[in-house]
Amino acid sequence: MRSQALPFLLLSIRGEDAAADDEYSAMMRFAGLDTTGMHRIRLTHEPLGDIDLAEWSGVILGGGPYNVSDNPAAKSDTQRRVESELLPLIEDIVERDFPFLGCCYGVGTLGTVVGATIDKTHPEPVGGMAVAMSAAGRDDPLFAGAPDVFDAYGGHKEAASSLPSEAVCLASSADCPVQAFRVKHNVYATQFHPELDISGICTRIDVYKDYGYFAPESAEALKSAVQQWNVTYPPVILERFVARYSRRD
C-alpha cells in the first residue's frame, strides 16, 4: 500500500470569518496545498483537543488580535482558554524539535515558551516593512537565498525585545529587532506575515479597523499605501516550510 503524505495543521486564532477564511485560503495557496493537505482548527470556535504530532507533517500558527503580554485580567475567557491549550502544545513542539511555523502571534507564544522578553516596546503599524536578514538567517535552510532586505506585510502591538541564548535571530526591521527567529533546528516564528499579499492585507485592514491598530478613518489610505510595497518573497517561506517538512506515514 502506498503511503500518504501527512497533512499540516493550521491553528487559527481569528474569530472573524472573513479574516480567518482568507488566512486559511492564503496559507494553502502559497504552500501549494488543499484542504486535504492542510487541516484547520479554529481555536476561537473549538477546543484544541488532543494533538498527536505523529499524525502531522508540521504545525503552523496564524496571527490575530491576541497579545500574550496583555494583562491576564484584560484577556477574554476565550483567549485565556486558547492560550492554556496552545502554550503546552508549543512546549511539546520545542521539546521534540517538531516542525513549527508561528506567524506574528507565533513570536509571542513561542517566545513566551522559550523565555524571550515579549512586550510592547517594538510595535509596528499595519502596512509594509523592510525586513533585513541576519548572517544566521542567510545560512538558515528556510531563509537561505532570501534577498538581504525584502518587503513584507505586518502590524503588531507586541514583539520580542530580546531572545534567550538558545534562540537564533534570523531577521529584523528598523522598528523591530526580531522579525524572525528559530529554536533548535525546526521551530520557527516570524513577526511579519508570510501569508499576506495585497488582497490579504486589505482584507485584514477592513476586518480589524476597529481593533486599535490604526485610526478607523485611515483604512482607505492604508489600503492605498500598502500597494507601494513589493511583497514577493515572504510567501516563499511557507512554500519552503511545506517542501522541507512534508512527510509520509
Automatic annotation (TrEMBL):
Gene3D superfamilies per the UniProt record, alphabetical: 3.40.50.880
Alphabetical list of InterPro entries matching this protein: ChyE-like, Class_I_gatase-like, GATASE
Entry keyword annotation includes Transmembrane helix: no
All residue ranges annotated as the Glutamine amidotransferase domain in the record: 53-196
SUPFAM superfamilies xrefs: Class I glutamine amidotransferase-like
Signal sequence range: none
The species this protein was found in: Mycobacterium deserti
Alphabetically ordered keywords of this record: Glutamine amidotransferase
Lineage, top ranks: Bacteria, Bacillati, Actinomycetota, Actinomycetes, Mycobacteriales
Record protein name field: Glutamine amidotransferase
